[in-house]
Amino acid sequence: MSAPLDDTGLPPGTTGVVTIDLDLLAKNWRALSTLVAPAECAAVVKADAYGLGASHCIPALVRAGCGSFFVATLAEAEEARRLAPDATLYVLDGLLPGAAPALAAIGAIPVLSSQLEIRAYSEFARATGLRPAAALHVCSGLNRLGLTAGDVEALALAPERLGGLDVRLVMSHLASADNADDPMNEAQHAEFEHLRALLPAVRASLSASDGMMLGSPFHFELARPGYALYGGQPSRMRRAPVEPVVSVHARILQIRDVPEGGRVGYSGIWRAAQPSRIATIAAGYADGIPRSASAGNAASGGKVAIGGQVAPIVGRVSMDLITVDVTALPPGSVQPGGWAELVGPAITLEEAGAAAGTIGYEILTRLGRRFHRVYQGGS
Fold this sequence. Notes:
CATH architecture of the largest domain: Alpha-Beta Barrel
CATH class of the largest domain: Alpha Beta
Distance between the termini: 28 Å
Number of domains: 2
Order of helices and strands: EHEEHHEHEHEHEHEHEHEEEEEEEEEHHE
Number of strands: 19
Number of helices: 11
Strand content: 15-25%
Strand order of the largest sheet: 3-4-5-6-7-8-9
Largest sheet: 7 strands, parallel
CATH topology of the largest domain: TIM Barrel
């Protein structure tokens, strides 16, 4: 059952609260580090630590012992460097035009995914006399970013193209690791082994959160969890040894009685089949609740929990509000000014995502900035 939200000390007018447990974040990293040992366990903190606040999460992870971080952009790398002065930083978006001096200045490692990027960074190295660190991303089957097999073979025939670069890591990314039975996992593993053998003999990384659950052959020398760090369960078949880090609550604004046949919300997509009690809650798609969590009479949608009891969203999710059918909840258990759990012990990230036809990753990273952040632990 959900613990009631302690709203002591919240700013006046707070409509929603995102609570982040930094001690659990550190505990999750340690558990994942044990899982992949002797490989190193990094931490993916892109997108403001998946929306939970890099300025709080990165220091907590450093104190836990994490020494390597992955971000997406140069700006994220600059923030991470301020927060983790001694860490190894990898930039997944690679080398964008004009970014080489800034990357080198902070000692961040761009993940190079094309011949063009390799050529540009090698030219920068020659022009400056520096030997900047770089990582190479090879495409093992996802067909998103990464050097093709032809690119890798060309580099193997002309290794001088990497001249001036200190290649530290070869990496790739799995497409279907959330499904342990998908044969694409083994196919990508084999392709990665083939391609990395043609490149400099450095550390290798194939697995993010879901890939870590496929077993030690997929761990190589470096694993890079993101979603699992924050308590998400990335694999549909194998549970990660982590606990939820985040809970989300929104304020109940009003309770109203709706007569049989009464319509609720935009377009009236939900009609009361019986006299009903409807709670209006201060959360909407501006706060990260997907509009696809809306529900008419013939469709299931999102849910909330009030006092540990689950109640369905009915009608359209709007920008600032959702409406919930609380008819089945005990009289008096739902009060204006109280709180509804959107994510937490009763509504997991995975359940919130599935109810909206999406994934927990999207729920987590889209949490809006209007909700007040409360950080626990981390000292």
